[in-house]
């Protein structure tokens, strides 16, 4: 429930009496929809990674392969049937018809690797699927790495009816939909430096955000005309939360939270800050607790 991305627990986009979450059903992962009032349950054939805002369709991937390659992000209840396959033909991005409870393979990993020009020596997997606010497009990573290596690279794909590559030179880490056509993204260069940028999907442009202090990876999101983001544990095991505007000269530190130094790798806890709807509070995930 509370791992890096957990069970993908959420409210149904059209009915707040229904919760939606991923689970296991005998020999496969599934999505369950539970009505909290009448306890009625609906089961979907695949575990959803993201869900359309009208509740009619979603996107899925192989959560066992994801967990094997990126521990903490997928599920390990079922064995990964694609072990030994660098670019499987029957695995990748799955389109799920929620109304008719059916799924089909939209893009195979083999197809994505070929489009991205990835050598067959690399093992590839998919992560971070995200549907646009108006449901007419979505983005995702293809991540590839060589066996035994800790180095990895990403290709950021956009599917808006035509599959295209948004970024393949720098390694993309996190992103947030600013609106249906703008993406805020964090990137890593080969020299180790990091930066925030904005992609305009209509004009097909990429602009680096020149705010002083946005030089370390984080999880950005928008609230009105401002943006909030965080950092990984820095000096003294502190995670910081930043508030900034695109035309500002510097970020504003709004919080510092201690992160238990013993929680690393798969067992870490990122802040993932989100501004609540009334704009008065920010919710975070944290290992911090105040002693009485």
Helix content: under 10%
Please state the overall shape, judged from the principal axes of the Cα atoms. globular
Unreliable stretches (pLDDT < 50, length at least 5) are: none
How do the strands line up in the largest sheet? Answer: 1-2-3-4
> What is the radius of gyration?
19 Å
**Count of helical segments?**
2
The computed structural class is mainly beta
Estimated share of beta-strand residues: 35-45%
Mean of residue pLDDT? Answer: 93
- Our measurement of the CA-to-CA distance between the termini, rounded to an integer number of angstroms, reads 27 Å
User: Mind summarizing the main beta sheet?
Assistant: 4 strands, antiparallel
**Number of separate strands:** 22
Keywords for this entry:
2 helices; mainly beta; 292 residues; four-stranded antiparallel sheet; single chain; globular
Question: Briefly, what is this?
Answer:
The chain is mostly beta strands and 292 residues long. 5% of the residues lie in helices and 43% in strands. The chain has helices at 63-69, 109-116, and strands at residues 10-12, 15-25, 28-35, 41-44, 50-51, 57-60, 92-97, 102-108, 123-131, 138-145, 153-159, 163-167, 171-179, 182-188, 194-200, 205-208, 221-223, 226-230, 238-244, 252-258, 274-275, 282-283.
């Amino acid at each position: 429930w509370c791992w890096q991305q957990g069970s993908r627990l959420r409210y149904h986009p059209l009915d707040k009496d229904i919760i939606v979450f991923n689970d296991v059903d005998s020999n496969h992962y599934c999505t369950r929809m539970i009505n909290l009032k009448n306890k009625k349950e609906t089961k979907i054939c695949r575990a959803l990674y993201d869900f359309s805002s009208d509740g009619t369709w979603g996107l899925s991937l192989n959560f066992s392969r994801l967990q094997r390659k990126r521990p903490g992000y997928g599920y390990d209840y079922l064995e990964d049937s694609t072990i030994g396959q660098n670019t499987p033909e029957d695995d990748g991005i799955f389109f799920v018809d929620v109304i008719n409870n059916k799924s089909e393979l939209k893009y195979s990993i083999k197809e994505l690797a070929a489009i991205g020009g990835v050598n067959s020596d690399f093992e590839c997997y998919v992560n971070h699927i995200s549907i646009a606010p108006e449901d007419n497009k979505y983005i995702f990573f293809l991540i590839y790495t060589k066996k035994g290596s800790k180095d990895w690279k990403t290709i950021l794909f956009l599917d808006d009816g035509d599959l295209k590559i948004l970024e393949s030179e720098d390694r993309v880490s996190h992103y947030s939909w600013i609106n249906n056509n703008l993406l805020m993204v964090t990137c890593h260069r080969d020299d180790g430096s990091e930066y925030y940028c904005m992609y305009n999907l209509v004009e097909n442009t990429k602009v680096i955000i020149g705010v002083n202090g946005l030089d370390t990876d984080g999880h950005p999101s928008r609230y009105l005309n401002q943006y909030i983001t965080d950092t990984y544990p820095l000096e003294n095991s502190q995670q910081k939360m930043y508030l900034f505007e695109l035309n500002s000269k510097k970020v504003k530190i709004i919080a510092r939270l201690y992160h238990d130094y013993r929680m690393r790798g798969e067992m870490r806890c990122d802040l993932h800050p989100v501004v609540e709807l009334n704009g008065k509070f920010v919710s975070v995930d944290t290992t911090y607790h105040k002693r009485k």
